[in-house]
Amino acid sequence: MSLKHHAVTPVDPVWDRIRHEAEEATAAEPVMGGLFHSAILHHDSLEKALGYRLAQKLASDDMPAQMLRELTDEAYARNPWLGEAARADIAATFERDPVCHRMLQPVLYFKGFQAVQAHRVAHWLWTEKRADLAYFFQMRSSEEFGVDIHPGARMGKGIMIDHAHSIVIGETATVGDNVSMLHSVTLGGTGKEDDDRHPKIGSGVLIGAGAKVLGAIRVGDCSRIAAGSVVLEEVPPLKTVAGVPARIVGEAGCSCPSATMDQLLHEH
């Protein structure tokens, strides 16, 4: 029998797993069934679920949830990369965060994940020259999640922000793929200049809690920044820096610090 006229069902293991977890959660905790249905089970794709969740979180008297839902749906429909990045962020959070036991959790509960997805929509609006809407998303994300990412900043895929309180990322900052950072991280400028003034974070980088990276400097791939450090100079790949101001104190310890989440300096 020919199969060429039969539709092929897309395979989406992340979304399928989230739906299955939502069904299990509904059975285990019926009092929360309304949330699981409205946020997950009512939707036919991760993109639709994320659009609904972001709209509910970011709605205000100035911008009702329905209007925000239309904007998020438009963003996901017109830029499929947003959905791809969200799936990579979910996988990263599930693999790296020891308190994440289900892929359902980031979508429903983790403000770091939600803030990154809100930024991705804001950045899409920014690139579409819809600056006021992009700024609105930035403002509401800062108010709701305690995460302030300028819509002009560029973020790669597989981003995990743990706890995510008091994150600040400036307009001309870039963050590579598979980066992990903890709370109170700043990727900031060093003055009031109006040009390229923020850090360029490579892929596979781990940034510890409270670290400040200032200026248009490069942080090399697969490096580590210790908690509380103030980084003012370029960081080579595969190195660990610590201190105020930060200095190289050793090797990174592995090929991808962001995945291992090891923040200790091991003596050799």
Explain briefly what this protein structure is.
The chain has 268 residues and is of the alpha/beta class.
Task: Please give a structural write-up.
There is one protein chain. The protein has 268 residues and is of the alpha/beta class. The protein folds into two domains: 11-146, serine acetyltransferase, domain 1, CATH 1.10.3130.10; 153-267, UDP N-Acetylglucosamine Acyltransferase, domain 1 (3 Solenoid), CATH 2.160.10. Helix content is 41%, strand content 15%. It contains nine helices and 15 strands. Strands 3-6-9-12-14-15 form a six-stranded mixed sheet. It has a five-stranded parallel sheet with strand order 1-4-7-10-13. Helix 3 packs antiparallel against helix 4 (65-78). The longest helix is centred in the middle third of the chain and has 17 residues, at 111-127. The termini are far apart. It is an enzyme of class 2 (transferase). Belongs to the transferase hexapeptide repeat family. One of its GO terms (cellular component) is cytoplasm.
Percent range for helical residues?
40-55%
Widest sheet, order of strands: 3-6-9-12-14-15
Question: Could you state the oligomeric state of the chains shown?
Answer: single chain
Q: What coarse outline follows from CA principal-axis ratios?
A: globular
Mean pLDDT: 94
What's the number of helices?
9
Number of β-strand runs: 15
**CATH architecture designation of the largest domain:** Orthogonal Bundle
Name the CATH superfamily assignment of the largest domain.
Answer: serine acetyltransferase, domain 1
* CATH topology (level 3) name of the largest domain: serine acetyltransferase, domain 1
- Largest sheet geometry: 6 strands, mixed
| Overall SS class | alpha/beta
CA(first)-CA(last) distance: 64 Å
What Rg do the Cα atoms give? Answer: 19 Å
Q: What letter string, H or E per element, gives the SSE order?
A: HHHHHHHHEEEEEEEEEEEEEEEH
Q: Give the C-level CATH assignment of the largest domain.
A: Mainly Alpha
Give start-end ranges of low-pLDDT stretches.
none
